[in-house]
Amino acid sequence: MSIKDTKTWIQEWLDERSGLSSITKFLREKKIPQHKHSIWYYTGSAILLFFTIQVITGFVLVFYYSPTLEEANQSVGRIMTEVPFGWIIRSVHSWSASFMIAFVFVHLLSIWITKSYRRPREATWMSGVILLVFTLAFGFTGYLLPWDDLSLAATKVGTDIPRSIPVVGIWGTRFLRGGEDITGDTLTRFFGFHVSILPVLLFILLAVHIYLVQKHGMSLPLTARRKNERFVELPFWPNFVYREMVVWLILVGVLFSVAVFLPPSLEKAADLMAPAPEGIKPEWYFLFLFQTLKVFPAKILFITGDTIAILLILLAVIFLFFLPLIDNRPAERKGKIITFIAYVFIMYAVVMTVWSLI
Amino acid sequence: MVLCLASLVLKYGYALQITPQAKDQAVQAEKEKEPEKIMPSPKNIKESTAIYVFLVWMWVAVFVLIYILILKIKEVDRLHRIKFFSAKRE
Question: How many domains does one find in chain B?
Answer without folding.
Answer: 2
